Amino acid sequence: MAWEHQPDALLRAINAHLPPDIAVQAISEVGLDFHPRFDAIRRTYVYRLYSALALDPLRNRYAWHFRQSLSVGDMITAASLLIGEHDFATFGQPTQGTSTVRQAYRATLESIGDELHVTIEANAFLQRMVRSIVGTLVEVGRGKMCIAAFHQAFQAADRAQSGPSAPAHGLRLAAVDYAEPIFDIQPDRDKR
Description:
The chain contains four helices and six strands; from the N terminus they run αββαβββααβ. The protein has a single domain, classed as Pseudouridine synthase I, catalytic domain, C-terminal subdomain (Alpha-Beta Plaits), CATH 3.30.70.660.
């Protein structure tokens, strides 16, 4: 059955039925052969951490709190080792198929006030990959793992070599890119 209304009407209708912590920002008509997961060529995740003596209840659901400071320089160096095509088996398991090889385009850390934003952009991700990477980077930042040990663990392609996974509440999907633009607008595009 064809939708007989304007796209904005569909957007309002969808959002009227979603819980208040979820909102559709834009919609676009695509071909019948389009698959939102398999047609994506890049995905970008951002993980938020913050360092403060006391927990901030307003950020508790959206960022991982640390009381101690982290060696951000060491974390940046370790993150740079992720760029390129590698076997990421140390940091996750495939959700489909058996290959654990992924192409990472970006792995950056940015200090914003007392927050540290870890941004990872890749062609695809393994299950729990970003949380595992962030947790292991934090081990580097805390001085519990040196950069050489991070690199060795990464190259081992062995899940047992990973550090602890970061909690889920600091993670968000920031962008999904397709070969052909789907939307006239890209939410969060200016924040990457």
